[in-house]
Amino acid sequence: MKKKPNKPGFSRRRIFLIVWLALIAVLLIAIVATSGSGGHEESIKEVMRDGVLHEKNKISLFGLPVNPGLISAFTVTGVLLIAAALIRIFAVPRFKTVPGKFQAVIEWMVGFFSDMAEKNAPHKPRFVGAYLFGAGAYVFFGTLFELLGVQVVTTEGLSVSLPAPLSDINGAIAVGVGSFLVILLAGLFTGGIRGLLGVLKDFSLPISMSFRLFGALLSGLLVTELVYYYTLTSFVLPVLVGILFTLLHALIQTFVLTTLVSTFYGEAVEPRQKKHKKNKKKKEEVSL
Amino acid sequence: MPLNIDLTQVLLHMLNLVILVGGLALILYKPVAKFLRDRRTHFQELERTTAEAEREAREMKAEYEEKFREADRVLKENRAAAEREIAESTARYMEEAKNKADAILRSAEAEAEARKAHVLEAAQTEIGEMVLSAAQKLLSDTASPEGDAALYDAFIRQAEREIPDKGDKHED
């Protein structure tokens, strides 16, 4: 008598095993999810408040209590500078006329900001190109940095994950004001006092830049904190929320900041006479 | 300060930003940007050189075409001149040949006339001799003064009838 061959993956024993293990897993998740606060020492209110204001969780930087965002900023800067030095030493001297994949990525990054500077500030693109590259790398990699979830110990002995540097309002203000100063100095060097005054009329620029960055990064941070706070929502959702939000924020904020800086810089360094003629032409067109 | 803004930390963030921007600009941005600029210049130079070479080639081609046209024109002119010369030379030879032929014909005609005259003269002499011999023969057979006179008369009359016709032809 011939034996009926078993179909792989569809035997009764296998189906039973799968259902049994799935049941155990669901029950374990349900038990963990319904077993109270999950060991949180802070309430959600405190976590959200601290995410915005950083009042409680301070990190000691050579004895000075600072927000975790500043530690993130220094870490990102250190990593970026080391990576840049390694690329400069090992990769750049081996650059070829027909680039490989890695060279193409580096060239694309530099070329993107260089082209943006030449397009938006054609009169003096070199300096602003370098600034855009640095600031863009800072915003992009700084935002992605929170994905690593590097843990540090606060002054109170708690463990916190290092956030994006720009989710700290001090970091956002530094970037906003720094960018404004770059534009201001460019206006001063190019157009003298008139150039300086021309830039100063856009006094709302540093505030808008700072708060745009802070708001965008903070919203991502808060949503991520919220998702991670509850055990039930911290299984699959963080993959979508954390990574997608962070990636999107990184790309969008880098593009917005660099575009704004290059545009305002281009206006600041634009020769006054030409601008006057253009305005005159525009006025004539409008009057016609 | 509101929102927990800390000036020291803002300045620390700015210091960090300055270090990062300056460092990245010096270490990575400038060398790579310089490489990109150099490569762009290199390709622009290549493009310019290629365009220059193409322009030179086009000019050379036009020059050669012009030379070809000039050579063709000269060739045609030479051929036409040669054809003209051949035609002239042929005409000249034909004329000369015709003249020579005419001269030969005239000479032949003159020679023929001379020969005719000579033949006629010889014939007259021979006839005379024949007549003489015939006369002698007759005389020897029937010799009498009356008979002789009658024969002479008859012969002369006959000769006068026949000879003048031949003499006329000779004169013609």
Keywords:
A: 288 residues, two-stranded antiparallel ribbon, 4% strand, B: mainly alpha
What's this, in brief?
Chain A is mostly helical and 288 residues long. Chain A is built from nine helices and four strands; from the N terminus they run ααββαααββαααα. Chain B has one domain.
Question: How would you characterize this protein structure?
Answer:
The complex is a heterodimer of chains A (288) and B (172). By secondary structure, chain A is mainly alpha-helical. Chain A has one domain. Helix content of chain A is 71%, strand content 4%. Chain A is built from nine helices and four strands; from the N terminus they run H-H-E-E-H-H-H-E-E-H-H-H-H. Chain A has a two-stranded antiparallel sheet. A two-stranded antiparallel sheet of chain A has the order 3-4. The model of chain A has no long low-confidence stretch (mean pLDDT 80). Chain B is mainly alpha-helical and 172 residues long. Chain B has one domain. Chain B is 94% helix and 0% strand. Chain B is built from two helices and no strands. Chain B has helices at 7-141, 145-171. Chain B is rod-shaped, with a radius of gyration of 63 Å. The interface between A and B is large, with 47 and 32 residues.
